[in-house]
Amino acid sequence: MPPTEDPIDHLKSLPDRAARYEWLDSLDRTERNGILNRLTEDDRRRYRQHADARLAREKRSLKSADREARRQDAIAGRATDIPEMIEALYTVMPRLTESQRAWVERIDQSADASKRDGFTSRQAEVIRDLYRKQFRKRG
Fold first, then answer.
1. Does residue 2 lie within any of the structural domains?
2. Interatomic CA distance for residues 24 and 76, integer angstroms
3. pLDDT tens digit sequence for 81-118
4. 96 within 8 A of 54, measured Cβ to Cβ
5. CB atoms < 10 A from the CB of 16, how many?
6. In this structure, is residue 17 part of a structural domain?
7. Predicted model pTM
8. For a surface tag, which of 16, 22, 27, 129 has the fewest beta carbons within 10 Å of its beta carbon?
9. In a domain, 42, yes or no
10. 3-class DSSP state for residue 40?
11. Do 13 and 56 have their domain in common?
12. What domain range includes position 42?
């Protein structure tokens, strides 16, 4: 944008809404707010929706990356929570005996179906034992 051009004129000269939003996103907060204050209420609302959607995508991406890191830690034998242990045990189901598989599935299903938080002490003990046997450090 040339320094003498009005920001609103520059914004209107951009080819489509995506380009306009990309340009607005590239501005610092003060400049962006100054321009947004000069736009119509509908334009401000649409931009806020765009910004909210972008933020939600970023949060989902971070959450997904965090979940994947926790899953990799669990598979590496560093899980501390029962749900992480169960998820790791699902990755080695073929190595488990039929009764061990049944235990893991029943405990997982009962925890999902119940409205309580956590697992019974017996369920936690069974999962910890199976997890320890499958993922203890060998070396």
1. no
2. 44
3. 999 999 999 999 999 999 999 999 999 988 776 766 67
4. no
5. 8
6. yes
7. 0.58
8. 16
9. yes
10. coil
11. yes
12. 7-60
